[in-house]
Amino acid sequence: MSEGSVTMRHATLQLFALGTSRAFGASVASQLGVALAPHEEREFEDGEHKARPLASVRDADAYVFQSLHGVSGESANDKLVRLAFFGQCLKDAGAARVTAVAPYLCYSRKDRRTQPRDPVTTRYVAQVLEACGIDRVVTLDVHNLAAFQNAFRCETVHLEARPLFAKHFVERIGREDIVVVSPDAGGVKRVERFRASLSAALGRPLANAFVEKYREKGIVSGEAVVGDVRGKVAIILDDLVSTGGTLLRAAKACRALGATAVHAAATHGVFSASAAAMIADGVLDSVVVTNSVSPLPLEPSAFGGTLAVLDVAPLVAEAIRWLHEGGSVGELIGD
User: Fold this and answer.
1) Which among 91, 110, 213, 232 is annotated as catalytic?
2) How far apart are CA 298 and CA 279, in angstroms?
3) I need a surface site. Which of 139, 233, 282, 287 has the fewest CB within 10 A?
4) Per-residue model confidence as pLDDT tens digits over 149-183
5) pLDDT under 70 in the chain at which residues?
């Protein structure tokens, strides 16, 4: 048996991790009790690249880790192409099934037309991956679940970080009077699922609220809060944080209406350079993200001790175990 493979119930399981996702992939592999399968990645002077497995993948159940966020020197587009090409390379080499594990899936926010002749880029990403032999996509907390599921024709597995967030806040502020807040109307369903999980963990009912949000020509406005936050600890939940503007706007609105403390939770810490303004503002008592984007674009020290990063590797590892052994991931994620 080659390094990086283990026989479970069916085909041989092999795990590969590309580029900056290697550390995350190694952590997942460790949870499964295996090593990453060896592969080669080469860069050429003109910007092209080559990646190939260094062990046989014939008839294997192969998983490729590649979180599709941009990093210095490697854009989301670069990562998408590398994932697609490597997936096709594995199929050409005889892999029985190839699963792309993309904890952060690029272009998830562009899931519908908001202007005439707009692209629906979420669907285009699906077409690229499917055309290059990807049989299944595993991801975490996409922007719009229905749009994600409708975009793909291959099998999709959607994991959620809400149990991790619930556990975190139970331990941190479980005795406080809590209200769970969506920073816009579009995130109400996500917040309701989290509210239900947190309420069950605490054994008491919790309130929810949302902040109005309007976007016109790239300018975001709206600060009215629907729901009661006065005298409560507010937890603002979103799928990702980039500039921090949406979370900051919602946090200020909650503070203005009498919230005693405000915490922010977002699955994907994309953190653009301008997110430093959110950190320096001081309106948020804490910011919680997962390691779906790893390494973080900003150093944790830039948050002045307010940042917590939750590890989703055990969740992803358990999903892979269930998938490989033919179990129902729905039982794992509570569906």
Assistant:
1) 213
2) 11
3) 282
4) 999 999 999 999 999 999 999 999 999 999 999 99
5) 1-10, 213-222, 330-335
State how far the Cα of 109 lies from the Cα of 33, in Å rounded to an integer. Answer: 35
**Helices 121-131 and 76-92: crossing angle, nearest 10°?**
30
- Residue type (1 letter), 178: I
The yes-or-no answer on residue 213 being catalytic is yes
